Structures are given as structure tokens and as C-alpha cells.
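Components:
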Amino acid sequence: MLLKNLKPVSSSHNGKETIDIRLDGDVIKEIGSGLNATKNEETHDFGGAYVSPGWMDMHVHLRDPGFEHKETIKTGCDAAAFGGFTAVACMPNTKPATHTRDVVEYIIKKAQKLPVDVHPIACVTKDRAGKSIAEMADMKEGGAVAFSDDGDPVYDSQVMRVALEYSSMLGMPIINHEEDLALSRPGHMNEGKVATRLGLDGTPGIAEEVMIARDIMLAEYTGGHIHVAHISTKNAVDLVRQAKKKGINVTTEVCAHHFDLTDEEIERTNFNTNFKMHPPLRTQEDVDAMVEGLIDGTIDAICTDHAPHAIEEKEVEFIYAPNGIIGLETAWSISNERLFQTKKLDLQQLVEKLCTKPREILNLEVPEIKEGVKANLTFFNMDEEWTFTPKNVRSKSKNSPYLNQKMKGRAVGIFNKGQLVLNELR
Amino acid sequence: MSKVPEGYQFNQKHLLGLTDYSKEDILFVLDQAKYFREILDRTVPKVPTLRDKTIVNLFYENSTRTRLSFELAQKRMGADVVNFSTGSSSTKKGESLKDTIRNISSMKIDMVVVRHESPGVPHFLTQCVDAAILNAGDGAHEHPTQALLDMFTMQTLHPDLTGKKVAIIGDISHSRVVRSNIIGLKKLGAEVVLCGPKTLMPVYVEDMGVEVSYDLNETLAWCDIAMALRIQLERQEGATELFPSLREYHERFGIKYHHLEKYPDFKIMHPGPINRGVEMESEVADSDRAVILDQVTNGVAVRMAILYLLSGGTRV
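Structure:
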């Protein structure tokens, strides 16, 4: 197969040159310019789109097993491919929870033939109950890449200490959903000026920060690797920045919506539940701090916390609506508009946040664009304007705050596991 | 300006909150309510203005006076009224609010009066059905008819509220009454001070254009009107208590008879129901400084006015 007219972006390519890539099965056979198709060779001309090593979203909810009415591994991977992701790491708040090796293996098996790599994140604790640690070593053998009780924090400090010690023996990170429940409940949006006006109970930033501070101290003490999930406040970024300076083994990620939207949206849209998620949308000051954290490297990775919910689950009273929004399909456009078009990050830095860092954090091999390696590629542009209509949603659920919004920049396809996926707008 | 300007036209379809109402809208509703207030003093306190209208009162939260007040207002105007409250409803069977309202709407309803524990439910209903929606209280968000009747009552004391000093005392965090009052009073040019324990004060509330005091004496010395709010203990259930005891609350923030003697100018309001001995002493509630029962009477008139206007009435 011949892929023509692509501008490569990676740690060793700056997107200035144009190349052609010849694939043989799932391997990059030849890279050059002006390559000619051989007889009967399948050829695709990308017309000057960019290509980078395949992106990875290290924080998604595929809802499978247990909540297949929201998403399945198949539909979640369709959404990932549409968003330009060749890999996802999926959270274990399934039913049954991904707390034993058989569930880990079920997920891997179900994703085997799909063009997207699915890496299960397994539970920290049995039944995700927060009481005692799950069989981490066995689940690692089965293919788990990290441990998390996401959706809930590991609340008990002693359990977290044990988890960090045990997982550090395995060289695996603990990803904590940072939330002090006593401080955050029963919040429905960010505690602040808007929540006060709307009369909604708020989740204060401090609920996130207190837990991060604890986890940083426990990581320092145990030598474990704490990965702070979906960071969302300015003070939280400061905490991680200071910890990194001290050499503590802490990494973090930010969801695309947290460097784009603020809590004002809930007022502007008259309580649209597609703006309700955890952590909640914060203030402009926090949004700006996310961008700063991405620039100076405090924030390692861009993720989505893709969290599908069925229409009937979201179309309810605001305080009854579940937290979470889908994000895989829109992450690139938001990153492009908020980070690249504004000249906050260049393309190579963006690819680092979308491709390299998530895999480094999870100890996965980082794909490259060079001859002789397995082809794992994302094709994308920065200028195409398109609309995220319901028809363009590939996820089984449609709970996106960006529905029917004009987007700029699109992932036009991926190549992985020998499969080319070209994203057509509907 | 304290009068409705010439040529003003009322163009609102719903009453979701006072946020969406202009100063002129508010003054106009209050002005129209005067006519209905007079009707209430007649031997036959009835007008046939809504006799071709069907109204559903949708109460997902307990309410006695607001529901009675709406129902009386509707009946005094000849509307057909149906009441729906949880306990007798299909919500127990797991039907969603959207399905419930669309089913009710299919029975040809003109107006919906709704109370719900979740902020935003009135807005949500406007997306589900075509009927006019009246907010009778959505969580701690808004309670616009209460604020309108409060302002109507204040106008009977001070016809022009510009520069008048209103203190709102008590559980600010959990109060929808206070939010609607702040919005309305600020639009009419009044000054508002909130007084209560810091733990019952929402964060950044000053951003709504009010000042905060933790000193009841200072507040009562300053104000023309003191509105005490009910301590909503039920809203704190299952959570960390936000103040130590009702005793300490009353000692520090309860209005007592000696305050009436010490500060002879202010009048007393309360949206009810009163916890006697908590927000105020009984002697205070029953004194001639209190206009609490006037508020209740005025409530019917104000609700008649807003029902009339939202049913398509132009001007009485």
C-alpha cells in the first residue's frame, strides 16, 4: 500500500517536508519522496495532510463489559479512530469491574481484531471498593498497563500506600481519581461564582488539590509512581509542578475540555447536562493554568476521559444527570484550536502530549515513522473546518458539549495493525 | 425610574427566574398586581380572565403555601386546574421528567407551574413542551414569584425601592428566595446586605452585587427592611452540620424583641414557614413591625398578575 503526500511530525520530523510511505502488510517498507505505485498497489493520496506516530488516549471509558448500552469496545474504538487515536487505555469501572485477570483478558480479546490498540487499566482494589488491593501482578500478566479505581478515588490513605508500594514492585503507575469525597459531595459543578448564582452545590477545587497533595506525599514516601488523573485546577498544577521539581515520581494528564471550557457554559446553556462531568469545568484562570502546565511540561499528556452515557441518562434534571462526556472525536480539534492555532504548543510538542508521553507513562513502546517498524500512524490536518453533527458521532452515545459546534482541524485517518481507517464526514 | 415607561410591552413567555426579567418587566408585573390585590378585597374576589385556560401544578417537592397560593390565584381567575405532586405520580414508577411533562402536555395544558429540587428544571421543561412555564422554586436557584411578592410588599412600605436598604438574614446558601430577591432588588435599585453565619454564605456571593455582614446588630441598625429566612435543617441532613446548634444560631442571628426597641425603623418580612424561636422571637413575628401575613395575601395577587400576563393578557 502506498500513502502519498504526507508531512511527517514526530520527535525527529518537524512537519516541513513531504514524503510518501510504502507499507507492506503492517510494516513500513519504504519512506521517500515521489514513490511510484507498483502494479495493482493500493494508493492513497493525502494531499499534504500531516502524519505522526499514532496517538494514544490514556483515559477513556469503553463501558464494556456491563454497560454496552452506552458504549462497546467496538464503538469506542470507532470513536477513537475517528479522533485519530490508534490506542486507548480504558478505565476499569465496568460491570463486573476490571478487578481480575479474566476481565482484563476479555477486553484484550474483544479488541484483538480492531484497528485500535486497547490497553486495560485494572482496578487498584477488589470490586473497586477501596478496601484491599486487587491481584495486580496477575492482571499485569494478563495485559493491564496501570491501576486505577477511576470514577472513585482510592480514598483510604493506607490502601493507597500499600497500592503504591506493591505496584512500584511491578513498575506500574497508580492512576488516582483525585477527589476528597467529603469536600466534594454533593457537588454538581465547580464551586464558584456561577454555582452560587445557579444555586447548585459546588465541588471545590480544594477537593481535588487535597487528594493530590496526599498522593504526592505518599509517592515520595513509597517511591511509587502516582499518575494524577484529569487534572483541572491551577493549584493542582502548581502542586504537581513543585513535586516534579523535587524529583517525585508523579505524572499527570489533562482532558481537552479542561483547557477549553469554563463553568460559565452551564449558565450560558441553561443547565445543559452535556457540560456536567467530574472534575467539573472550572474557571478561566484554571483553563489558563492547564495551558501553562502543558507548555512547561508539568502536564505530560492530553486525554479525553471519554465517558459515554445514553440519551435517557443525560436528558434528566441537572442534579440527577451522571457525570461525563464523550471526547475522543473532538480532542484533536480542541487541541488544535486552543494550543496550536494560538501558538502555545508547536506540532512536535502536541504529538509528544498525544502520542509519546501517554505511552511512556504506561511503559508502552512508542511508535516511530521509520522503515522496518510496524506502521502505527495518525493522519490529520489543522485547517479543515467541519461540524460535529450527531451523524459524525461514532461513539454509541452522543453526550458531547461540542455537538453541532464548528470545529477546526480533523483527524482524517489512522493506520494500525495492518488496517487503514479513513474518516469520512457524514 | 420607578414607573413603567410609556409604550412598554410585556414580551415574556415564561417565568423561569428574575434573571431573564428586566427592570421594566418587574415593575410592570408589580403594577399589574395592584389591580388583582384590589380584587382580593371584593365581596366576590373572582375574575373570569383564565376561564379558557388549563394549568397544571407540578410539585416535585413539598410545598404548602406556594402551592395553595398558586391554586387560589388560578381558581380566582376561573382556570381549570390539575395538581400533580410526587407520591401520587408516575415518578415512583420510574418515568422520566421529560416523559411525564410530555404526557401531561398531550392532555392540552396551557401553563405549567413547577417546583423541583433540581436547579434548571423550569428551563429543561421549556425544551420539552410548548406550554408557558412558571418556576415555583427550583432547588436553591430561583423562586421568582416569592421575590415578586416580597418586592410588592416592600413597595407598599416604600413605593420607590431605589436606594432602600434590605437585609436578608439567615440560611443564604440553601435559599432560592434570596437569589431571586437579590436579582430583583438590584434591578429596582435597592441595596442588599446578607447576614448569617459564614458557613451558610455561598462563596463569592458578593459577586451578585451584595454585601455580607456577620453582625446582626450592625445589619438591623442599617436596614429599612429585614427579611429573615427559614433555617432549612432538612437540606443539611446526611451532611456535616454547618452551624453548631439552633440555640447558638438564635443567640447570634435571631431577631429579638429588644432589637425592635433599639432600632425603631425597620420592618420585618419572612417567606415562611417561620421557625419561631429560631429566626425570630414569637413577639417579633406577631408585632406590628412584621408584614409577614401581608406577604401571603400579596402572594395571591402577584401570582394572579403573572398568570394573567403569561396567559397572553396584555394590560388590565
